[in-house]
Design a protein that fits this description.
Blueprint: E1 2-7, H1 18-24, E2 30-35, H2 40-52, E3 56-60, H3 72-84, E4 88-97, H4 105-122, E5 126-131, H5 136-143, E6 149-151, H6 158-167, E7 170-173, H7 183-191, E8 197-199, H8 221-232, H9 236-250
The structure holds nickel (II) ion.
Nickel (II) ion binds at residues 6, 8, 36, 93, 202.
Length: 255
């Protein structure tokens, strides 16, 4: 059974056939899905999905792209969602994203730190999104002394991956591993010990080859497992087993 450790089934791209897609997953070998919140609204939607399907769990959090929406009231609602719903297993996705024009470093940093504090208060792991932050996200994680986190959709260098492992982090890979220009991600994956690896789709985005550009879903997480098995020189069964065990341990889920 595979564990898709990062998915967005609340996305409008699934509005037409969400239930059909979700019900197809078990037959495709997917036993668990972590549905990730990215703002207050999608966090609520993630919790609703987790309460509807026994194989779905949820995270709540505000993505750096929506850092401007963070207020005392939003933080309080995230806390309540996490406290009142046992299927909420982490705070995320949170972090820094300097990719698109118009971002505000200070606003993103404050939003990130407030949610790190929330995770500490609730004794929960965090799911980190770091895009083009020039090392700032990792500096903040160090300053805050965070040890219980996952760097999702990892696309950095092998050196950075090793640094994260030293900090106690998990490192998670998407279908990017299967892309033709994936040399860096492949090297990074090679540098992470087996017991720190997780697999994810980040669906509906990031569909792996040979489905690149299509709508992604957890049924494609096996392509990530296949590529990871090849990189690590172990069997597909071993990668499936270890990444599922890693995600269960990380998110505190009993089999
Ligand atoms: Ni995501």
């Amino acid at each position: 059974m595979l564990f898709d450790s990062h998915a967005h089934f609340d996305d409008p791209q699934f509005d037409g056939d969400r239930d059909t897609v979700l019900k197809s997953l078990k037959n495709l070998g997917v036993g668990y899905v972590m549905n990730i919140g990215a703002d207050l609204e999608t966090s609520k939607a993630a919790v609703a999905l987790a309460n509807m399907y026994d194989f779905i769990y949820a995270t709540v959090g505000v993505h750096p792209g929506d850092a401007g929406s963070m207020t005392d009231e939003v933080l309080e609602q995230l806390r309540t969602l996490a406290l009142e719903n046992p299927r909420v297993r982490a705070i995320g996705e949170i972090g820094l994203d300097y990719h698109y024009e118009g971002y505000d470093e200070k606003v993103q940093e404050t939003c990130f730190r407030r949610q790190i504090a929330l995770a500490k208060e609730l004794d929960m792991p965090i799911v980190v999104h770091d895009r083009d932050s020039k090392g700032n996200a990792i500096s903040i994680l160090r300053e805050e002394g965070v040890k219980n986190g996952v760097m999702h959709c990892f696309s950095g260098s092998a050196e950075t991956a090793k640094e994260l492992v030293k900090m106690g982090f998990m490192v998670s890979f998407t279908g990017v591993l299967t892309f033709k220009n994936a040399r860096r991600a492949i090297e990074a994956c090679g540098a992470v010990p087996l017991d720190r690896l997780m697999i994810e789709t980040d669906c509906p985005y990031m569909a792996p080859e040979p489905h690149r550009g299509e709508r992604n879903f957890s049924g494609y997480v096996g392509y990530v497992a296949d590529k990871m098995a090849e990189i690590k020189g172990v069997s597909r069964e071993e990668i499936a087993q270890i990444t599922t065990e890693n995600a269960l341990r990380f998110y505190g889920i009993e089999k």
